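Worked example 2:
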Amino acid sequence: MMTKTERVKAALKGDDVDRIPMSIWLHYPHKDQDPKSLADMQIEVAQKYDYDFIKLMPFGLYTVQDLGAKVKIFGTQHQPPIIDEFGIKDIKDWGRLEVLPAIYGTYGKQLQLTQHVANQLKGSMPFIQTIFSPITTAKKLAGDRIYQDMKEDPKLFHQALKVITETTINFVKANIEAGVSGFFFATQHGTTDEISEKDFDEFAMPYDLEIFNSFKDKTFFNVNHIHGNNIMFEKLSKYPANCISWHDRWVAPSLSEARKITDKCLLGGINEKAVLATATPDEIQAHIEEAIKDAGRRKLMIGPGCVAEPLTPEINYYAARIAVERFSRL
């Protein structure tokens, strides 16, 4: 029987596995303001369902609080933090951003999350830290005004993106030192719903690649998560990640179509909204069987297209885990 690390590494390389690696992740708003509490919760959940890896779940606005955004925190189980006030209110504000060290403020808390998880797992399970593309952070920091600002003063906007990139790389380096297995790089701008391909090539890709180059040869498990509809899959599939995640159950390409575009490991197969959250256990098992048949069992990990719904019945998580065990030998 393989260890969890052996299983994940084999799937990434395309070697045979004793079962397909899987994990499911969701936000914990009642725990994610305290790094030790979040670490304990994520490890408890991963062990409860016998997952093969942990995707760390810092709250989605952790990259903008230190840059000046006001964040409203509810502290309840089902209500994640929201932006209370953008950090950029005038185009000149972009020029006021400064590069931050990884130990500062909210970034420092997420580094503590990595440290707590590493100390508890002691190498028994891979875990990856969630980071965001610089333009995704810029959008969270300023809202829709970024599209006007990038046109009005592209030089200043590039300057801000460089600051965000350097801050992110500082965080990446500190996480590597803390023992993370890799990174879950999330972009919400790899879609033509948000940005044209021309603007993506200018304002997103160069900074994305700079971040990837800071860790791609130093960590073994790196996921490129492409969020949204109408995604630029072929373009982003060339990023130097060894695993790709997207909303494969309702956004093109399908798993089988993706196999024709890239030879990288695919992470997906679960529709976390329409199936995992509401279907019966039998329906969930059929859903995962279908995904495995569609993708083939090599270079595949089973997981959701994005975060699971907070009110998903516990039995459905068990059903998904059992399905992977049952259908891994298809």
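The mean pLDDT is 97. The domain at 4-327 is CATH 3.20.20.210 (TIM Barrel).
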